[in-house]
Write a structure and sequence with these properties.
Structural class: alpha+beta
Shape: elongated
CATH topology of the largest domain: OB fold (Dihydrolipoamide Acetyltransferase, E2P)
Number of strands: 7
Helix content: 40-55%
Number of helices: 4
Distance between the termini: 11 Å
Strand order of the largest sheet: 1-2-3-4
Length: 128
C-alpha cells in the first residue's frame, strides 16, 4: 500500500496558460508594463512546469516518505519522522511533517491536490 498526492494536471496547465497570456500581454505593452509582467510570467511558467514535471509531491509507502519541496526532493524513513499533523494557518489547512533533524515539511491543499486531513489519514494508515 502506498500514498501519492500532488497537484492536478489541470492546475499545472492553467498556470502554463496564464504564463503564455502574461507573456503575450508583456510583448504588446510598453516598456514599464513589460518589466512588470515578464517576471510574473516567468514565475507562472516555472510553477506550471514544476507542477507538471515534479509529481507526485508526496509519496509514502511502508519504507518511508518522499516529498518534493520546491524543486528539491527530500526522503525520510519512518523512524526519522517525529510527528505528522495538520495545522491551520489563518484559514488554510496544512500538512506538517516534522523530521528528526528539526526539518519541518509543510504541504498545502494546492500542492497536495486534495485536503491535507485526508492525506494525513492515509499516511497514518500506511506508516508501520
Amino acid at each position: 500500500m502506498s500514498v501519492q498526492a500532488g497537484p492536478s494536471r489541470t492546475t499545472a496547465l492553467a498556470l502554463l496558460a496564464v504564463a503564455v497570456v502574461l507573456a503575450c500581454v508583456a510583448v504588446g505593452t510598453d516598456t514599464a508594463g513589460a518589466l512588470l509582467l515578464a517576471p510574473v510570467a516567468a514565475v507562472a511558467l516555472g510553477l506550471g512546469l514544476r507542477d507538471l514535471l515534479l509529481v507526485p509531491v508526496l509519496h509514502a509507502d511502508p519504507d518511508g516518505i518522499r516529498v518534493v519541496q520546491g524543486v528539491a526532493r527530500r526522503s525520510a524513513r519512518w523512524d526519522e519522522v517525529v510527528r505528522m499533523r495538520t495545522v491551520t494557518d489563518r484559514r488554510t489547512v496544512l500538512l506538517e511533517v516534522e523530521l528528526d533533524d528539526d526539518e519541518v515539511l509543510l504541504l498545502s491543499r494546492g500542492r497536495l491536490g486534495r485536503d491535507p486531513r485526508d492525506v494525513l489519514e492515509e499516511l497514518q494508515a500506511v506508516r508501520p
